Amino acid sequence: MVHYIRFLKSPRFDLAVKSPKHVPVSALITITTDLGDAFYPGDLSIYTAIVTRFGKIPLGLTFWKPGMRCLKIETKVPLEYLTSWARLLFSGSESLEADTAQLGKVPYILSAWTEAFKGPQDAIADVVVRGFTLLEGKVLEICEENGESIACHIWDAAIGLTAWLISHKETLTQQDDRQCTILELGTGCGLVGLVLGSLMQNSRLILTDVDEGSLKLATENAQKSREIFNSVWECRFLDWKEPRKFTFDGNLTFIVASDCTYNPDSIPHLVQTVADLAQRSVETHKEAPSPQVIVSTKRRHPSEAIFFELMSKSGFEQKEHMTVSVHDQYRESVGQDIGIVDVYIFERPMKQ
Questions:
Q1: How many Å apart are CA 350 and CA 345, to the nearest integer?
Q2: Cα–Cα distance between 45 and 28 in angstroms, integer?
Q3: Does residue 333 have a pLDDT over 70?
């Protein structure tokens, strides 16, 4: 499984004690699982750097120890690197590169970046930024909320699905001449939808969620990502309990969802929404194929199995099932099972 460096307190400069050459900066971090239910259990070196137009400049090394729940990081930043925009980076990798979201290369510790700031007097935004290297060296930046809540954070199933999508780009892009339309359910920060939108150039992307905070964050992330994809996009409210209130034009090519089955009480509404969207998509364009439904899960309890039963009852056939191993250096070192993300593709056969 992946562990995430998160800011409990965003980095802050202490201007009261700065010297002619340096200014102190401190941050309070934690290293936890996607749901925040466990902290990283091993020893880990945390590398701190400042990123400027001159490149990445290492600032220091701090050590995370077993049993820790948080870690205060204190270092000094040379003022010469704060004359224009800059950002701080906290990483478990000495390379200080953006994390790679590709099969077999997903890091076991996800780095944390700050938003850019213009100098030590500029307040650093209370978010954590993830940088993911996609194909052709493109870097997708995704903002998450700070703190220990599980809302508005990236979860393992989204990272696993992202890696699978990137590795299957050629298969996904084998569409006809119609514009590809992608709808993501429960988008959260928007990672999966934005990755798929970057792979399917000139597509139409609809990111949906019931949480207004998530939609705001997904909107900001989509706006930040305009340089790496030219898809038309929108972020919209969609309540699975009332899918008919959600309107859309045209035919859907893909319906995607990651880690949306963790709450068994919401699964019937999720399946109802998928079925309704697929049905209306076909009714709109009777000659177009039914949308492919791509779902990733990190199975947390047996009750999630009801999802597959309800999908079958709604006429969907499971066409593929793939597993994505999520690297975990600590688990491997002590002989524990590594994390697995399951990716499923469903289709509903066209009625003759």
A1: 16
A2: 15
A3: no
Length of the chain counted residue by residue: 352
Query: What does the pLDDT look like over 213-230, one tens digit per residue?
Result: 999 999 999 998 887 877
> What would the DSSP string read from start to end of 124-179?
PPSEEEEEEE-GGG-EEEEEEE-SS-STT---HHHHHHHHHHHHTHHHHT---SSP
* C-alpha of 64 from chain center: 24
Here the tokens at position 281 are 């998509």
CA distances in angstroms from 113 to 33, 54, 132, 350, listed in the order given: 18, 17, 11, 46
pTM over 0.85: yes
What are the pLDDT digits (tens) for 247-280?
A: 998 899 999 999 999 999 999 999 999 999 999 9
For residue 243, the SS3 value is helix
pLDDT above 60 for 328 = no
What does each C-alpha distance from 121 to 9, 13, 14, 28, 124 come to in angstroms? 17, 8, 9, 19, 9
Q: How far apart are CA 190 and CA 184, in angstroms?
A: 8
Supply the DSSP string of 40-90, one letter for each residue. --S-EEEEEEEEETTEEEEEEEEEE-TT-S-EEEEEEEEGGGGSS-BEEEE
The two tokens of residue 31 are 């290293």
Task: Round to whole Å and give the CA distance between 103 and 165.
Answer: 9
User: Which amino acid, residue 348?
Assistant: R
| 261 DSSP assignment | -
Q: What single-letter amino acid sits at 14?
A: D
Predicted local distance difference test score (pLDDT) of residue 120:
85
Name the residue with tokens 């909320």: 145
Q: What is the CB neighbour count within 10 angstroms for residue 69?
A: 10
Token output for 11: 């980095």
